[in-house]
Write a structure and sequence with these properties.
Length: 298
């Protein structure tokens, strides 16, 4: 919708969070900790129940969660899941309500969500986040956002509650500027993840101490904090997901799809999607995406 009929904007005091998985749970908790009234819904209610101890009202339906809220934030698995949740919320949505759509939905998925926002008279803000479980836990996500100026005022306390910084990249959420940037950033994250996993897999196969590889690149231009973090996670057998393998496969396929639509071949990301699929097939789908490692030995 246009913002002509939007009431004089004021910072949100209440927010509905739809989706309380690896990312949504800590985001909802941090929003409550920041002083907002938070109502949360998750398809599997048990995954949201723990939020009650942090002052979050756990709702039984999306409509119950959004009823009377100043803003809605969706953080679900993919575009269809976000659209389904918002359709369920429709009876309680009101024209002019600001919707921060933070699910990684891809460009095709975003179109359907933006169309629903128009049909429902919502102010649509394209707002994916960069960061995994740990930054979400500590409220240090980077929010990539595109949306009209009045919505920025409404969402200011929401984005401050979940992130360390908000990067506004456009004034029309429907154009997908933030989602496009998110796909570019994720293409790099997934590539580095596979590079780490494959280097450690090759070390194992060749009988090389993986720590010797890490020592060889230490302090040089090929060294990086992400390599260290993922290597330590894998070598220590700590595969609790900060970004699950199944979700990484989904994101990889969205990146390939977006590239195809733009006439850009994403050969490395496409091969990476297949590695994630194999790792999931081997039983590592709910583990951290560095489980790409196991695809080398299927």
């Amino acid at each position: 919708m246009t913002t002509e009929n939007l009431p004089t904007p004021r910072p949100a005091r209440s927010v509905a969070v739809l989706g309380t998985g690896i990312m949504g749970f800590p985001m909802a908790r941090n929003l409550a900790g920041a002083g907002l009234e938070v109502r949360a819904w998750n398809r599997t209610r048990s995954k949201a129940e723990g939020l009650a101890a942090h002052g979050v009202r756990v709702a039984g339906t999306p409509a119950e969660a959004v009823d009377g809220a100043d803003a809605v934030l969706t953080m679900l698995y993919d575009g269809p899941a976000a659209l389904d949740a918002m359709r369920q919320a429709a009876p309680a949505l009101r024209p002019g309500m600001v919707w921060s759509q933070s699910t990684t939905a891809g460009l095709g998925g975003l179109d359907a969500l933006a169309a629903f926002a128009r049909e429902s008279g919502l102010v649509f803000v394209d707002a994916p986040v960069l960061g995994t479980k740990q930054p979400a836990e500590s409220g240090q996500l980077l929010v990539l956002a595109a949306g009209p100026e009045p919505a920025r005022t409404v969402l200011a306390p929401v984005f401050e509650g979940i992130g360390s910084r908000t990067l506004w990249v456009g004034d029309n959420g429907e154009e997908g500027a933030a989602s496009r940037l998110k796909l570019v950033a994720n293409s790099w994250v997934l590539t580095v993840t596979h590079g780490t996993a494959e280097a450690l897999a090759l070390a194992k196969g060749l009988g090389v101490d993986p720590r010797a590889f890490l020592d060889a690149v230490a302090g040089g231009s090929l060294d990086m904090g992400y390599l260290r973090a993922k290597s330590d996670q894998l070598l220590g057998g700590r595969l609790e997901a900060s970004f699950a393998t199944r979700t990484a496969e989904k994101d990889a396929r969205l990146i390939v799809e977006a590239g195809e639509g733009a006439g850009v071949r994403m050969d490395v990301v496409a091969a990476g999607a297949e590695r994630f699929r194999r790792a999931a097939e081997l039983g590592h789908g709910e583990e951290d995406m560095v489980a790409s490692y196991f695809a080398s030995f299927g």
